[in-house]
Amino acid sequence: MKKNSIILVVFLIAGAVAFYLYKSQTKGTVKQELKDFAVADTASIDKLFLADRDGNSVVLNRSELGYWMVNNEFRAKQGAINTLLYTIKDIEVRSPVGKNLYNNTMKLMSSTSTKIEIYQKGVLAKTYYVGHPTMDNKGTFMYLEGSSVPFIMQIPGFNGFLSTRYFASANEWKDPAVFRFEARRINMIKLENLAHPEHSFILRKESDSLYVLTATQKQEKITPMDRLKLRNYLLAFDKTNYQRVDNRVSSQAHDSIRKVGPFVKIDVSDDIGHYKSVNLYRLPVTAFSKNAVDQETGDTMSYDPDNFLLTLQGDTTWYLGQYFHFKLVVADPYTFRIGKDTSKQ
Q1: How far apart are CA 49 and CA 34, in angstroms?
Q2: What's the mean per-residue pLDDT of the chain?
Q3: Cβ burial, residue 97 (10 Å; 0-12/13-18/19+)
């Protein structure tokens, strides 16, 4: 009798477990640890690794100074970093993927997803895969490593998909800065204008309020200087960006352009040890040039009048710049004299 009672209790427990599992499956619920994508404490995240199915990968590290680095070489776009951290913190499950979509979803994710590894204080905390958007473009398929099912993820209040925030191209993560100098800290600017040598100069900071500007071709000091124009010039080095990484000009064309040489060289340093050296190169007219013909003569222009190429010291990448954004940086020293108008240069 006692044996039968034990068997009855076992059957009752087994039945209760089976009923619980059945109800869990029918409601589409999964263990919490298998759907917990979010990381609440993003301040403790110090490293992110992303890799896609096209062979791209990138490591993003938080530096000791607080900003983020790309592969420990270049400063990262802070806006893109903030967006990704916000996403990591606020994503939540909209729904698990149903059995009818499971096979197709996993097949697509195996060929198009981006992997992300999230590290907190140097320790791998979470790994998941970011896939394609849902049909309504308001959710994103994601799969948490170790889970048995993918999920449709969302951010409450955001009507859009999230996959574009997880990208593995190092070039896309780079801060597009050519110059990021605090005006008050700049202690030297050397501009060598090879196209117009008479516009070459060196600007040196002698003290907190004293700057000496020398036109190098004639070794002529420019004095008296307009302090407002000088201030605006220094401020131009606070945020000067390239437009994008150049991927339209062939490597052979890059080699030819390098042989011709730059038309302007710029070196900048500050009083806390930062230094930047930039070369600007004329860009030949291409199929992408918006203004390829001289409006007065009708002749094809010898170089693109809107864009140029540039390289940064220690960086083999070619970047596309715009003359419009560099018009204050590439200055004529004589326009700093009181009474001259730098805006027309």
Answers
A1: 20
A2: 87
A3: buried
Nearest to 344, CA basis, from 225, 194, 229, 215 = 229
Token pair for residue 286?
A: 């291409």
Q: Which of 106, 113, 135, 140 is nearest to 37 (CA)?
A: 140
- CA-CA-CA-CA torsion sign (101, 107, 108, 113): positive
| Residue 300 DSSP code | B
SS3 217: coil
Per-residue confidence (pLDDT) for residue 289, from 0 to 100: 74
Q: The dihedral of CA 56, 110, 47, 179: what is its sign?
A: positive
- 174, 76 contact by CB (below 8 A): yes
pLDDT in tens, 32-84: 657 899 999 999 999 999 999 999 999 999 998 889 999 998 899 999 999 99
The DSSP secondary-structure symbol of 299 reads: P
Please report which helix (H) or strand (E) contains residue 26, including its range.
helix 2-26
Q: What is the side-by-side order of every strand in the sheet holding 307-312?
A: 220-221, 211-215, 201-205, 186-193, 264-270, 275-282, 307-312, 319-322, 244-245
Hey, is 98 helix, strand or coil? coil
Distance CA 77, CA 243 (A): 13
Q: Of 261, 257, 265, which is closest to residue 193 (Cα–Cα)?
A: 265
Chain-centroid distance of CA 109 in Å reads 24
Q: Is the pTM of this model over 0.85?
A: no
State whether residue 221 is helix, strand or coil. strand
Domain map of the chain by residue range? 32-173, 177-344
C-alpha span between 112 and 109 (Å, rounded): 5
d(CA 139, CA 160): 7
